[in-house]
């Protein structure tokens, strides 16, 4: 039996251009509070896969969901320019 991998070219050749740029890293850093809040919500939901929900789990999910919404609100407010004051 022949190995197919030996007959194919590399799909993604390695190059130095694969590293994220400074702008991309800044964008990730700006979104980090939202990412952390979404991970916390996901963790709370994953816990419920193994057991029935208790009152504590419900509070934990609501708290995590509120943090996600607050992080989304803050991210949206940062990306919108402040309108000029009307005299």
Describe this structure in words.
There is one protein chain. By secondary structure, the protein is an all-alpha fold. The protein is flat and about 50 Å long. Helix content is 59%, strand content 0%. The protein has helices at residues 22-47, 55-79.
Strand content: under 5%
Number of helices: 2
| Helix coverage percent | 55-70%
Task: Write down the secondary-structure element order.
Answer: HH
Terminus-to-terminus distance: 81 Å
As a whole number of angstroms, the C-alpha radius of gyration is 22 Å
- Label the overall shape: flat
Number of strands: 0
Entry keywords:
single chain; 87 residues; mainly alpha
Write the SSE topology.
Layout: H1 22-47, H2 55-79
Helix pairs in contact: 1-2
């Amino acid at each position: 039996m022949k190995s197919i991998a030996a007959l194919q070219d590399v799909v993604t050749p390695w190059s130095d251009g694969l590293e994220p740029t400074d702008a991309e890293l800044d964008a990730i850093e700006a979104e980090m509070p939202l990412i952390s809040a979404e991970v916390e919500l996901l963790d709370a939901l994953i816990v419920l896969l193994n057991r029935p929900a208790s009152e504590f789990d419900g509070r934990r999910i609501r708290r995590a969901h509120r943090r996600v919404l607050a992080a989304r609100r803050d991210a949206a407010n940062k990306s919108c320019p402040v309108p000029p004051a009307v005299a």
